[in-house]
Amino acid sequence: MITFEEAFRIVTESSFRIGKEVVRLDEAAGRALVVAVRSDMDMPPWNKSAVDGYACRHEDLGHELTVLETVAAGVMPSAEVVPGTCSRIMTGAAVPAGADYVFMLEDSEELTGGKVRFTGRPGNDNIAKAGEDIMKDQTVLRSGHIIKPQDIAVLASVGAMEVTVSCRPKVGVISTGNELVEPDRVPAGAQIRNSNSSQLLAQIARAGATGRYYGIARDEADSITTLLKKALEENDVVLISGGVSFGDFDLVPGVFRSLGLKMHFDQVAMQPGKPLTFCTGEKKAVFGLPGNPVSTFVQFEVMVRPFLNRMSGVSEQEPLLQMPLATDYSRKRAERLSWIPCTITPAGEAKPVEYHGSAHIYALTGAWGVITIPRGQSWIQKGEMVSVRQV
Length: 391
Ligand code: AMP
Ligand code: MG
Description:
The strands form 8 sheets. The protein has a 6-stranded mixed sheet with strand order 7-4-6-5-9-8, with no helix packed on it. A 6-stranded mixed sheet has the order 16-13-17-21-20-18, sandwiched between helices. Strands 19, 22, 24, 25, 26 and 28 form a 6-stranded mixed sheet that branches. The chain has helices at residues 4-13, 149-157, 196-206, 221-234, 252-258, 293-311, 362-365; strands spanning 20-24, 37-38, 48-49, 53-56, 65-71, 85-89, 101-104, 108-111, 115-118, 127-128, 139-141, 162-166, 170-176, 180-181, 192-193, 210-217, 237-241, 262-265, 270-271, 277-281, 284-289, 321-324, 329-330, 337-344, 350-352, 369-373, 379-380, 385-390. It has 4 domains: 2-17 and 168-311, Molybdenum Cofactor Biosythetic Enzyme, Chain A (3-Layer(aba) Sandwich), CATH 3.40.980.10; 29-43 and 133-166, Alpha-Beta Complex (Molybdopterin biosynthesis moea protein, domain 2), CATH 3.90.105.10; 48-128, Molybdopterin biosynthesis moeA protein, domain 3 (Beta Complex), CATH 2.170.190; 321-390, MoeA, C-terminal, domain IV (Beta-clip, Beta Barrel). By secondary structure, the protein is of the alpha+beta class. The structure holds adenosine monophosphate (AMP) and magnesium ion. Residues 176-177, 242-243, 291 line the site of magnesium ion.
């Protein structure tokens, strides 16, 4: 049995890159950028007033000043500010030549004869300098970055109407188990509903990939083989849940071998999800995920998602937060790295939620994240720092 770290290393090193495509700015959110974007201009393009007020010379602040004009946003100033003068200016407007200070309307007094006086105390010049936010030709978004809504504003600002992003990885989903019926059916006798497939498809979508569902395979080698072959033909990655442990009807690893896939590992020292199985073929990867829904969920988050990100060229690591544990924690056996669901208290501590084990998917609906309990650690004291991953 290998460690989680070793399994993670094998999985990430086995990733392969997929193609790229050009998408419009309004379709780019959530996509992985593969060609860096540069700015075509300075931002702001000119010295810009940050307030509504009067633009003048700093050294004239103590004098009565003649108002030359009103400069609104969207109009270039027509007059140069010279000694003894100022221009009324609105937020976002270009500061006139000659002016190096803008005092706020709130700090001014209008006088007769088209004059104004500064009544405040000198401080910030209230001018955003040309190019202080972004310089022309500066790289504003790097390759390997997942485009967020705020990045869309940056792209729009620099006129990047199209961006080159990674294609979405194509991911096939198969469930296995004679006990499973689809969620729209009422289970009878020894049946249960298939919850993994819907969950995985939702996780795939959240990861920016395209999921496709192939159905429930019976616990028979032929049934698994038929669905797996089709899913492999049509996708980059296949996720097959259930049937990877060592029970009499856990036939999935045998099918992996019979299809000539290279099996890298079939057991990892982690909880939930010990029987996680990972295989590759020519530009294909298959994860055999344990059937219990919490295992499937967690394994996707900690293994599959990083793998999909790497396929798309994403260079950023998902952050692990360090938080104090809200209560004492203990476990009897510590030979596996484990993840336990938690909430965050108002004081910012990670608090384990009631959790009955890897079948208890409902525990995750009330959870904010999962706490990592390192291998070898059976006891953690309240207040000690733990790693938390948002789910
Ligand atoms: P397995 O990994 O096939 O031994 O399954 C482990 C447990 O997970 C069993 O209790 C299964 O009934 C359950 N299980 C397997 N597949 C699914 C699924 N698609 N949806 C919900 N539960 C499942
Ligand atoms: Mg099964």
